[in-house]
Design goal:
The complex is a heterodimer of chains A (612) and B (107).
Chain A (H helix, E strand, L loop, with lengths): L1 H13 L22 H4 L6 H7 L3 H29 L10 H36 L7 H9 L1 H13 L20 H4 L3 H30 L12 H33 L11 H30 L11 H14 L15 H13 L1 H15 L8 H24 L1 H7 L3 H31 L5 H27 L18 H35 L19 H12 L10 H15 L5 H5 L4 H4 L6
Helix pairs in contact in A: 4-5, 4-6, 4-19, 5-7, 5-9, 5-11, 5-17, 6-9, 7-9, 9-10, 10-11, 10-12, 11-12, 11-17, 12-14, 14-15, 15-17, 15-18, 17-18, 18-19
Chain B lengths: L7 H27 L6 H35 L10 H6 L7 H6 L3
Helix pairs in contact in B: 1-2
The chains are: A mainly alpha (612), B mainly alpha (107).
Chain lengths: 612, 107
C-alpha cells in the first residue's frame, strides 16, 4: 500500500503543474474581479488528467452533465425493459424479481443520479458566470462533491453487476421509497450497498448545496445584489437551502435503516419506532426533494423562455417570492404521501391544507410564464419548444397533483397509476424537458458549436407526443384502478376492465419508446454536433441583444471568443440602432417580425463554419 | 410590516405570498370551528402547529427576503436588470428601473 501511495505521489509530481490552475486567495489573476475565469484556471493539464484533477467550475459542470446523461440512459433502459414486460398481463420477458429490481433502480437513478446531478451541472457551469463570480466559493469541495458520485452510482447499481458472478448479492427490490419493514427484512446485501451509495450521493448533494449558498452570498460581482440576482441563481439558492435541511435527514434515516438491517436495532421495527416512522422521516426528505428537482428547472425556464418571447420575464419578483414560498411550504406537506397509512384524520387534514396552499405559488409561476408569452415575439427554437412543453406538461402534472392533495380523492387513487402519471408529468415532462431546453440554449457556450436544428425539433416532438401518450394513459389506468409497481396484472376481469388496462399498458409502452427514440435522436445530435458542428463565432447566437435580453453568460462567451480570436467581425453602427428600436418592441411586446416568427433564432444561419 | 420598511411596489410584490397564507388561515379557522372529529388537546396541538408553524416560517422568510430585496434596490444607483451586466444593459438600452415597474408596461 505504501508503495502504491508513493507511486501515485510520484505520478502526480511528474504531471505538469497540476495544481497551478486552482485559484488561490492571494492570486491576483484569480481575484481580479468578474469574468476572470480563464485567468483563474490557466495552464490546465491536458487529457484525462485535466478531468481527474480539475477544480474549475465549468469543467466540473461538464463532468456532472456527463454523469447525469449516463445515469439518464441507465434509468431509461431500465424502464423500457419494464414497459416491454407490461405489454402483456402475465410475466413473459423478465422475472418479477428483476422487474422489481429495475423499478427500484429506475426510480433511484432518475432522482438521485440524474435529476440532482444534471441540475448541479447547469448550476456549476452558469451560476458563477451569471453572478459575476470567479469560481465557486470552495472549488476543491466542489470537485470532491462530484467525485463522491461515481462510487455512489457503482454502489447503487452494484447488485446488477454481480448478477453474473457466483456471489449471493443481487439488485435491491425495495422500490425507491425503501419502506420498512420490506427494506429492513430483505437479506440481500445489495440493499446495503444501495443504501451506502445513496448516502454518498446525499453527502455529495449537501456539499454542493453549501458551496452554492456560500457562492451566491459571498462571491457575487459588485453590481449583483439581491435586487437583481438572476432568477436561476435564486432558484439554485432556494434549492440549496432545501438540500441543506433535507438531505442530512435522509442520511440519518439511512444509517438507522442500515443499523436495523445489520445490528439488530429497532428504529423501524414494530416493537420499536414502527414502520410509519420510516415513512415520516423519508417523506420529510422526499417531498422537499421534489422541489429540489423542480425549482432550478423552473428557474431555467424563467431564464430561457423570455429570450424567445422577446420580453423580460413578467413579474420577476412574483417568481422570486413564490420560489421562496415553495421552499418553505415544501417542508410542511410531507404526509400527503401517507394519507392511506392510517394516521390520525385531524393531522391528515392539516397536511391537506398545506398541500393546497403550495399550489398557489406554483400556479403563480405558470401564469407568469404564460403572461410573458402574451403578445411576445415568439420564436419557436428548440429551447423555446421545450420551455413551452414544460409549461404545458406542468399544467397537467400540477393540476393532477392538486387533485391528489384532496384526501377523499387521494384515498381512491393512491397506489394506482394515476399517481405515477402525475409525478412523471413533473419529472419527465418538466424536469427533463427544462434540462433539454437548457442544453440546447447553452450548447454554443459549452461546446463552441451549434446543434442541428431539425434533429432538435424531431427530439422535441417525439418527446412531447411520447410524454403525453405515456403519462396520460397512466392517468386513465389509475382511474381504472390499475395498481402501481406490479410486475404482472393478470387479475380477474370481473374486478376491473382487464382488456382496457392491457390496451392502455400497450399504449403507454408505445409512448415510452417514442420518448426513447427522441432521446436517441438527442444523443446523436449532441455528440455529432459537438464533434463536427459548425463553430460559433457570433457571441449572440440567439439574437437576444436587440431585445435587451443578452445575459451575463453570453457576455462572458463574447469575451472568450474575443480572447480566442474567433469573434465574428461586425459592421458596427447599425447594431445600436437596432437595439434602440428593439427597446420599444420589448416593452410592449408588440409588433412581431414575420421572419423572426418563422425561424429558429437564425442561430444556425449565423454559425460560421471555420476553415480549420 | 409597515410602509417605512416596504414601499407600495414591494407590498404589491409580497401579496403573492399572502395568498397561501390566507389559505392556511382559512383552514385553521375551519378546523377550529367546524371540525367534525372529537377534541383531543394533543392531536389538536399537532394539527394546528403543522399549519401555523408552516405559515409563520413563510411569513418570516417573506419578510426578510422582501426587506433584503427592497433594501438592495434602494441602495442601487442604476438598476441593472437581473442576470445582465452593466455593459450589456447599456448596449441594449435597457431602462434603469426596477423590474416591477418595467413589467407593468407589458399589460
Amino acid at each position: 500500500m505504501g508503495a502504491l501511495l508513493v507511486g501515485i505521489g510520484a505520478f502526480l509530481a511528474r504531471t505538469e503543474n497540476w495544481r497551478a490552475y486552482a485559484p488561490l486567495a492571494g492570486d491576483p489573476a484569480a481575484t481580479g474581479g468578474s469574468h476572470e475565469h480563464e485567468q483563474g484556471h490557466g495552464h490546465k493539464p491536458s487529457g484525462i488528467i485535466r478531468w481527474l484533477t480539475t477544480v474549475d467550475h465549468k469543467d466540473i459542470g461538464v463532468l456532472y452533465g456527463t454523469y447525469g446523461v449516463i445515469a439518464f440512459l441507465w434509468g431509461g433502459v431500465a424502464v423500457l425493459l419494464m414497459r416491454l414486460e407490461l405489454t402483456t398481463p402475465t410475466s413473459t420477458l423478465i422475472e418479477p424479481s428483476l422487474y422489481n429490481a429495475l423499478l427500484t433502480s429506475h426510480g433511484i437513478t432518475m432522482l438521485f443520479l440524474f435529476g440532482t446531478p444534471i441540475i448541479a451541472a447547469f448550476a456549476n457551469y452558469f451560476v458563477p458566470l451569471l453572478i459575476g463570480a470567479d469560481d465557486m466559493a470552495f472549488p476543491r469541495i466542489n470537485a470532491i462533491a462530484f467525485w463522491l458520485l461515481p462510487p455512489g452510482a457503482l454502489l447503487i447499481w452494484a447488485g446488477f453487476f454481480t448478477i453474473p458472478l457466483p456471489v449471493d448479492i443481487g439488485p435491491a427490490q425495495t422500490s425507491w421509497t425503501m419502506y420498512a419493514p420490506l427494506s429492513a427484512q430483505q437479506p440481500n446485501p445489495g440493499v446495503d450497498l444501495m443504501m451506502l451509495g445513496l448516502h454518498l450521493t446525499g453527502v455529495s448533494a449537501t456539499m454542493g448545496a453549501i458551496n452554492f449558498i456560500a457562492t451566491i452570498f459571498t462571491e457575487r460581482g459588485e453590481n449583483v445584489t439581491w435586487a437583481n440576482l438572476d432568477i436561476f441563481s435564486w432558484t439554485v439558492l432556494t434549492q440549496s437551502g432545501l438540500i441543506l435541511f433535507s438531505f442530512p435527514l435522509l442520511g440519518s434515516a439511512l444509517i438507522m435503516l442500515l443499523l436495523d438491517r445489520n445490528f439488530g436495532t429497532t428504529f423501524f421495527a414494530v416493537e420499536g419506532g414502527g414502520p410509519i416512522l420510516w415513512q415520516h422521516l423519508f417523506w420529510f426528505f422526499g417531498h422537499p426533494e421534489v422541489y429540489i428537482l423542480v425549482l432550478p428547472m423552473m428557474g431555467l425556464v424563467s431564464w430561457i423562455l423570455p429570450k424567445f418571447a422577446g420580453r423580460k420575464l413578467f413579474g420577476f419578483k412574483f417568481v422570486v417570492y413564490s420560489t421562496l414560498a415553495i421552499g418553505v411550504l415544501s417542508f410542511g406537506v410531507w404526509a400527503h404521501h401517507m394519507f392511506g397509512s392510517g394516521m390520525d384524520p385531524r393531522i391528515r387534514a392539516s397536511f391537506m391544507a398545506t398541500s393546497l396552499a403550495i399550489a398557489i405559488p406554483s400556479a403563480v409561476k405558470t401564469f407568469n410564464w404564460i403572461t410573458t408569452l402574451w403578445n411576445g415575439r415568439i420564436r419557436l427554437t428548440a429551447p423555446m419548444l421545450f420551455c413551452i412543453g414544460f409549461v404545458s406538461n406542468f399544467v397537467l402534472g400540477g393540476i393532477t397533483g392538486v387533485f391528489l392533495a384532496a384526501i377523499p380523492v387521494n384515498l381512491v387513487l393512491h397506489e394506482t397509476y394515476y399517481v405515477v402519471g402525475h409525478f412523471h408529468y413533473i419529472v419527465m415532462g418538466m424536469i427533463a424537458f427544462a434540462g433539454f431546453g437548457a442544453i440546447y440554449y447553452w450548447f454554443p457556450i459549452v461546446t463552441g458549436k451549434m446543434y442541428q436544428k431539425t434533429l432538435a425539433k424531431w427530439h422535441f416532438w417525439l418527446s412531447m407526443i411520447g410524454v403525453n401518450i405515456t403519462f396520460f394513459s397512466m392517468l386513465l389506468m389509475g382511474y381504472l384502478g390499475m395498481p402501481r409497481r406490479y410486475a404482472t396484472y393478470d387479475f380477474n376481469p370481473a374486478l376491473a376492465p382487464l382488456a382496457s388496462v392491457e390496451l392502455l399498458h400497450q399504449v403507454t409502452t408505445f409512448g415510452a419508446f417514442l420518448i426513447g427514440l427522441g432521446t436517441l435522436v438527442w444523443l446523436w445530435n449532441i455528440v455529432q454536433s459537438w464533434a463536427e458542428g459548425p463553430e460559433i463565432t457570433d457571441p449572440d447566437p440567439w439574437n437576444t441583444k436587440r431585445d435587451g435580453l443578452h445575459g451575463r453568460e453570453f457576455a462572458w462567451f463574447e469575451e472568450q471568443l474575443a480572447a480566442d480570436g474567433k469573434l465574428a467581425t461586425t459592421d458596427g453602427g447599425e447594431a445600436s440602432d437596432a437595439s434602440r428600436g428593439s427597446s420599444e418592441l420589448r416593452s410592449d411586446g408588440g409588433e412581431a417580425d414575420e421572419e423572426q416568427l418563422a425561424t429558429d433564432g437564425d442561430a444556425e444561419e449565423q454559425a460560421q463554419p471555420t476553415d480549420d | 410590516m409597515s410602509d417605512r420598511i416596504f414601499d407600495r411596489e414591494t407590498l404589491l410584490d409580497l401579496t403573492v405570498n399572502v395568498i397561501p397564507l390566507g389559505i392556511l388561515v382559512f383552514f385553521v379557522g375551519a378546523y377550529a370551528f367546524i371540525g367534525s372529529f372529537p377534541d383531543d388537546p394533543v392531536i389538536v396541538l399537532i394539527q394546528m402547529s403543522i399549519i401555523v408553524l408552516t405559515g409563520v416560517a413563510l411569513s418570516v422568510l417573506t419578510y426578510f427576503s422582501g426587506k433584503a430585496i427592497s433594501g438592495a434596490e434602494n441602495e442601487m444607483d442604476d438598476y441593472i436588470p437581473a442576470g445582465y451586466s452593466e455593459a450589456d444593459a447599456e448596449v441594449a438600452g435597457v431602462p434603469s428601473e426596477p423590474e416591477s415597474d418595467a413589467s407593468d408596461g407589458a399589460e
